[in-house]
Amino acid sequence: MATQTVHHAAMTLTEHLPILQVLIPFITAPLIVFVGRRELAWPLAFIASFTSFVIACLLLSKVIGGGVISYKIGGWAPPLGIEYRVDAANAFVLFLVTGISTLVLPYARESVSSEMPERTQTLFYALFLLCLTGLLGVTTTADAFNVFVFLEISSLSTYVLIAQGSYRDKRALTAAFNYLIMGTIGATFFVIGLGFLYMATGTLNMADLADRLSGQYDSRTVRAGFAFILVGMGLKVAIFPLHLWLPNAYTYAPSAVTTFLAATATKVAIYVLLRFIFSVFQPEFLLETSALEIIFYPFALLAMFAASFTAIFQRDLKRMLAYSSIAQIGYMLLGVALLSETGLMAAIIHLFNHGITKAALFMGVGAYVLRSGGSFYIHLQGLGKTMPWTSAATVIGGISLIGVPGTAGFLSKWLLVQAALEQGYWPLAILIVASSLLAVIYVWRLIEILYLSTPTSEKVVQEAPLSMLLPLWLMAIACIYFGFETDITMGAAKAAAQALLSGSSGMMN
Amino acid sequence: MRHHLILRVITKLLVGTIFLFALYVQFHGDYSPGGGFQAGVIMAVGFILYGIVFSLAKAKKVFPPWLVHKLLAFGVLLYGGTGIYSMLMGYSYLDYTAIDPHHPSHGQHLGILIVELGVGITVTGVMVAIYYAFAARAPILSDEDW
C-alpha cells in the first residue's frame, strides 16, 4: 500500500477538555480496582474528582459568555460520529456535579468507614467514580444514544451504591431493588423514545435531530417518542407520581451516597429533560402539544404540596429530606413549565441552589448517623447542644431550603415568583409562597428537636470529626455565599436559559 | 459430578476448543461477525463449563478471583489507554490514526483490534465474576443427594 501522509495539526490539551472531563473519573475507576489497595482507593478517587472539578471550572469560564465547545470522538465528525458539546447549560451542571463530588469524597472517608465493612471500601470508591462518570457523560454528550449509555453507567452504579446501605439497615436491599426496577423501566422508556425519534429522522446527534424533527411535529411517531422520553426521564427525575423509588433509596443508602445522589443525580436528569424539551424538540413543539399545561403544571403543584405535606409527618430526618427533594423538583418543573427565560433561569438556578442546600443537609444527617447511630428524630433530640457545629450548619441548610432572604434558596424562589408574575399568573406566585410555608413547618420541627428537646439517651454524643465538618460547613457557607454573590449563578443560568431557549439555532456551527 | 464420566471427558475436550473459538471470534471481529463482546462471553463459557463440571473450587484454582478482578479492570484500562495514547499523539480521543499516522488505515486496523481485545478481556472477567458470585452461594442440594 502506498504511504499516505495525512496532515494533522496536533490538538492541544485545552481542546481535549470536554473528553477529559468524563475520561479522568472513568479511567480512575478501573485503575482503583486494578491497583486494588484500600489505602490508595480514596486518594485516587479524590484526585480524579478534583481534577474533573478543575476541568469543569475551566469549561464553565470558557462558555459562560455564550460560546460552544464541540469535540469529535475518534475524529469522526458529527452527525455520524459521537460529539461532546459543552455550552453554558451543561457546563453549569458539570460545575455543580464535580463540585459536589469533590466535597463529598473527603466527607465520605469517615462516614464510609463507619457504615461499611473494610473489604467493600475499595470497590465503593471505584463505583462512586463510575457513577460520577455516568453523570458527567450524560451532561457532556450531544449524542442522544450516548446519553442512554451514560445514564445506564450512572444508574447501575447507583443501584449498587444504594445497596451498600444494607450493612446499616437491610431495607437498603429492597430500596435498591425497587430503584433498579423503576430505573430500568425509565431507561427502557427513554430508549424506546429514542428509537421512535431515530425511526422518524435516522440520526442520533441532538442538533441533527432538532433540525430534522422541526418539520415533523405532527407525526405520531415523533409525538410517541416525546411521550416515552418524557416518562422515562420523568422516572429518573422523580416527577411527582413517578417518585416512589426516591424516599426509600435516599433513606437507606449510605449517608455519603445519599448526599451525592440528592445533590447531583436528579439534577442531571432534569438537565437531560431540559435538553430534550428545548434543544431536541423546540419550544414551539411544547406550545403546540400543550404537554406542559396538562402534565407539568398539575404535577409540579401536586409535588410542591403533597410531598411537602408528607415531609412534615416523617419521623426520620433522611426520609423527611427525601420528600422535601420531591417537592423541590416540583419548583424546578414549574419554572420549566412557565416557558419563559426567567422561568427557565429560575429552574436552572434552583437546580444548583437546591443541590448545594440538600448536600449541606444530608451531610449533617450523615454526621448525626455517625455519632448518634441513626437519623430518626428520636436519635437527634437535643443534639444542638452536643453537636453544635453540625447542627448550626444543618440549620443554615434548612433555612436555605425554606428560602429565607440572604440564602441561596431565596434567590431561586424569588426568581420563580417573578417568572410567574411576569406572565400574570399571580395565583401561582401565591401557591409558591404557600408551599414554602410548609417547608417552614418541617424545618422548624427539626430545629425544635435539635435545640428545644432534651436528649433521651444517656450516651454522650461527640461532635462530628473535622473531615466531615469541613465539607459540611463549606456547603453551608456556599448556601449563604450564593445568596449574596449572585453573579456566577445568575450569569450562568441566564446564559444557560438563553442557550436552551434558542433551540437548535446555534447548535450547528 | 465425579460419576459423570461422559460429561467430564467431553468437557475436557470441549474447553480447549471453546477457548480457541473465542480467540477466533475475537480476532476476526473486525471483518466478520464477532468482536470483543461475543468472544468474551465465549471465553467465559469455557471457564463456567469447567466450573460446573469440575466444581467451583477447581475453577477458582485455574482462574483465581483476584485475577478475574484485575483482568476486568485491565480490559477497560486497555480500551481507555488506547484513547489516551491517541490523545498524547495529538489526535482526538480514540482516533486510531494516531497509532500509525503514515498509514491511517493500518492505524485504524490495529486500533480496533486493541480496543476489542480490551472489551474481550473485560467481558470475560465480568462474566466469570458474575458466575463466581452466584455459584459461591451455598448449594441447596449436595452432589450425593441426587
Describe the structure.
The complex is a heterodimer of chains A (509) and B (146). Chain A is mainly alpha-helical and 509 residues long. Chain A has one domain (14-501). Chain A has 21 helices and 2 strands. Chain A has a two-stranded antiparallel ribbon. The two termini of chain A are 36 Å apart. With 146 residues, chain B is mainly α. Chain B has one domain (5-145). Chain B is built from 5 helices and no strands. Chain B has helices spanning 5-27, 36-54, 56-62, 65-88, 104-135. In chain B, helix 4 runs antiparallel to helix 5. The radius of gyration of chain B is 19 Å and the shape is elongated. The termini of chain B are close together. The model of chain B has no long low-confidence stretch (mean pLDDT 88). The chains are: A mainly alpha (509), B mainly alpha (146). Chain A binds chain B through residues 1, 3-6, 8-11, 16, 19, 23, 26-27, 29-34, 36, 71-75, and chain B through 66, 69-70, 72-74, 76-77, 80-81, 83-84, 87, 89-97, 101-106.
Number of discrete helical segments of chain A: 21
Strand percentage of chain B lies at under 5%
| Poorly predicted regions of chain B | none
Main beta sheet of chain B, described?
Answer: none
Detail the poorly predicted runs of chain A.
505-509
What helical percentage do the residues of chain A reach? over 70%
Give the averaged pLDDT of chain A, no decimals.
89
Q: Overall mean pLDDT score of chain B?
A: 88
Shape of chain B: elongated
Q: CA-to-CA gap between the ends of chain A? A: 36 Å
* Count of structural domains of chain A: 1
Compute the separation of the termini of chain B in Å.
Answer: 10 Å
User: What kind of sheet is the major sheet of chain A?
Assistant: 2 strands, antiparallel
Order of helices and strands of chain A: HHEEHHHHHHHHHHHHHHHHHHH
What number of structural domains do the residues of chain B give? 1
